[in-house]
Amino acid sequence: MTTEQTAGDQPLRPSLWRRILDSDLLYSFLRKPVVIVSFVLTVIIVLAAVLAPWIAPHTPFDPASLNLMNGFTPPFSANEFTGDTFILGTDSQGRDVFSAILYGARISLLVGFSAVAFAMILGVGLGLLAGYKGGWVDSLIMRVADVQLSFPAILVALMIFGVMRGVIPPQQQDQMAIYVLILAIGLSDWVQYARTVRSSTMAEKNKEYVQAARLFSVPAHRILLKHILPNVTGPILVIATIGLALAIILESTLSFLGVGVPATQPSLGTLIRIGQDYLFSGEWWITIFPGLTLLVLALSVNLLGDWLRDALNPKLR
Amino acid sequence: MLAMLIRRLIQSIVVMLVVAFIAFSLFQFVGDPINNMVGQEASAQERAELRERLGLNDPIPIQFMRFVGNAAQGNFGISYRMARPVSAVIAERLPATLELAMISAFFALSMGIGLGVYTALKRSGVLSNFIMTVSLIGVSLPTFLIGILLIYIFAVELRWLPSFGRGQVVRISDWWTTGLLTPSGRASLILPAITLGLFQLTLIMRLVRAEMLEVLRTDYIKFARARGLAQRSIHFHHALKNTLLPVITITGLQLGTIIAFAIITETVFQWPGVGLLFINAIRFVDVPMMSAYLVLIALVFVVINLIVDVLYFVVDPRLRATKH
Amino acid sequence: MNDVLLSVRDLVVEFPKRDKVLTALDHINLEVRRGEILGMVGESGAGKSLTGAAIIGLLEPPGRIAHGEIVLDGQRIDNLPYGQMRRIRGRKIGMVFQDPLTSLNPILTIAEQLIETIRTHLPMNEKQARERAVELLEEVGIPAARRRLDDYPHHFSGGMRQRVVIALALAGEPDLIIADEPTTALDVSVQAQIIDVLKRLCRDRGASVILVTHDMGVIAEAADRVAVLYAGRVAEIGPVRQVVKDPSHPYTVGLMGSIPSVVHDIDRLTQIPGSMPRLDNIPQGCAFNPRCSQVHDRCYRDRPNLIAVESKPDNQVACWLFDERASS
């Protein structure tokens, strides 16, 4: 999750800082309690997920550490047989729900961040290409974007997932599942980036300084990266933040539908799906707590994205 | 107008062909259809014969033409998993999905427009702010989570409503079954319809609100106020009509998404519609079913797009300018 | 005083901002007599349009009337509840906006908009109102009015649309029309026609007009009297001939000096140095003091009020120069 992320961020950094100063981002941030709370919650969840192996009280997916006697322990109370306490209760296997949530959030965020990075690289790349080259390259890319945009992301992701299911041999499917998921979510979400970058590229490439650089036969990729890309940092950041919320929701939805990550590596969505079966027998905590975590995470990231859009005020819709 | 309609129609046909090609490609990419149709013990010769008989040795363009021809007649082959014609299975399941989608679309539209107008007119009211805050949560809430929370509250805790299935259905013709005519059918519809419609409701509401606020700032509304027209007429005759123009487009597209999101709702509520069928098709790599669903959904989207275009024409006099 | 239709007394309009209150109109005093056209000029931001909006009670929130009163036909109207004020809008005061392209509702026919307005104010049935609508359109000079009644706004040209707007403003037979830059958005060739229509109709009906514009040519052509606004205050008010030919306030002098067509007796166009202060930066004393060529100590200290100019009957000016002349 980290390597791809920094690779995407590196060339954007100077302009990003400039924008932060220009737009009084920090000032606007400190004036909005809701945004601060969202930011803090996001950071807490991300930190907890990253540090899960060290801070989780149990390792939920190591069968050896589970005690079936601990099954269905309600939250905030001790198990009637073993006397063990679990802050958020246990599931049917005696698995600690709190630890499972930490590990689940880890998977959800891993897929989310990677999918966003993938979509960003793909979308920015294609957007630059379409805007700079124009002509049939542009028409082709934008036609594909149009068609794809008229279908909801979930459908696109499901289709891609279905195809990959058929292509990958069954024995490798479980271990490939996360990559397939990243690919499917990323491919379903590149259009926004491409559109924004394309229109900005088209506007920028006709300005004098770019024309001048072209006259001096500066290579195209240098022009694109040095002059055009910095102009779209703000909008891309906004799309990426909202995209992260969407990716997390999409991942959890796919996993909930049972076509996401395998049950041996459950994400928040998987936990909710597994827990749903126990809702009727009264063990609500198995599904409600992962659900609340997902809700808080998605809502916080969404609010951050909303605020960022207003604060940077790019012309987005 | 006719020229534009024809252009749109051609565009739609192109989109359908592209989608059909993707659906067709599924067969090429995903596994060997022969393996899926005959057992492991079939001899090489039997396989070759079947291959020839199914036309799998023909050039790709010919196979594609045949696929399109069959698809146009609703023939998508035999489901690998169910060993029945795909079209028959889909036809059987379609009423459940359409009924659910229509009810939630109605729910989302009526509540969305109503709340959008309300929050725009009472911009700083306490209730408006409350609705706006809740709607933000609504946008962030994954559909399946809404469903589960509703089930937990209304089916498990309160025991007011059923949590899965369609209840008792009535067959009103050979190809249509409805749950609307029985009490249990109607009760079963409530939670899934809310789940499916809630997301679109919040979207429509926020859109209507934003558009309405925009329209209320225009000169012609100021002029209408300056002429002393009644508040009611300014809001609901002058402003709302203009607000609904752009809303039609986006709302139309949202209705298409409802059909797609039905996949999730149907899974949560075990609703026996085509969405649930599609998810199972993906799980079991049932290619004919997948490709049929893809074409069907594309058709729904294209048709909705066309209707939206025509509707826009009917509502906006500026587009009818040529008539005079 | 029975010939006074509208009087605005000490009108103050404020816009509360995050940390301070901006005063956009600062003690405006003016009167509109029956049947006259009062021109209102000034640079953009001087408060011309705002005065119009305040009179008809359509200030955009958070703008509010903080002080003063507006009296129309003997009735105080600045503090009326919404329902009563609504019946004054259109019926007593009509308004014509600047841009005819955006003033008409694009998805309602001209007939629908006219008939609704007529029936809001006058006791007519649908059929009578429709006849009245045709008459109105004929009055404002729209050819083949009956046939065009059911057209949509986009079927009309800009000038024709402004005629429709005027017809709409007149539909309730108001005594006062506030025309806010009615010709600014139009082609030069159409501007004179629209001014003619406005002039003719008001004369025929005996209605008064407040003609807001920054175009001195329009004022000279159409207005009976003129009020010059500067930084939310009235700098000078008087008969158009006096103000244009023989301006008193140094700002008006500068304003007239910068207009080529009106002034014949000077060789060179003059320009006022500097620009009008922003609302949050209005100097103490006279608002014009940083740009004035005849400024003296008192201008920095005290704010001048409108005072009569001795040699010119009916002329009032807010400038200390004339106070000293009067006292000496």
UniProtKB/TrEMBL annotation, chain A:
GO CC, alphabetical: plasma membrane
GO biological process: transmembrane transport
Keyword terms of this UniProt record: Cell membrane, Membrane, Transmembrane, Transmembrane helix, Transport
InterPro entries: BP-dependent_transpt_permease, MetI-like, MetI-like_sf, OppC_N
Keyword Lyase in annotation: no
Pfam family, one: OppC_N
UniProt keyword annotation of Ligase present: no
Cellular compartment(s): Cell membrane
Bilayer-spanning residue ranges: 34-56, 107-132, 144-164, 176-193, 228-250, 284-308
Chain ranges of the ABC transmembrane type-1 domain: 105-305
Membrane topology: Multi-pass membrane protein
Family: Belongs to the binding-protein-dependent transport system permease family.
Protein name: ABC transporter permease
UniProt source species: Natronospirillum operosum
Organism classification: Bacteria, Pseudomonadati, Pseudomonadota, Gammaproteobacteria, Oceanospirillales
From TrEMBL, chain B:
Primary residence: membrane
Short name of any one Pfam family annotated for the protein: BPD_transp_1_N
Tagged with keyword Kinase: no
Residues passing through the membrane, by range: 12-30, 100-121, 133-155, 189-208, 244-264, 292-315
PROSITE patterns with a match to the protein in the record: ABC_TM1
Annotated compartments: Cell membrane
Protein name per UniProt: ABC transporter permease
Phylogenetic classification of the source organism: Bacteria, Pseudomonadati, Pseudomonadota, Gammaproteobacteria, Oceanospirillales
TrEMBL record, chain C:
Location(s), subcellular: Cell inner membrane
Protein name (record): ABC-type dipeptide transporter
Higher taxonomy: Bacteria, Pseudomonadati, Pseudomonadota, Gammaproteobacteria, Oceanospirillales
Annotated keywords: ATP-binding, Cell membrane, Membrane, Nucleotide-binding, Transport
GO MF, any single term: ATP binding
A Pfam family assignment: ABC_tran
Membrane topology of this protein: Peripheral membrane protein
Alphabetical list of NCBIfam families matching this protein: oligo_HPY
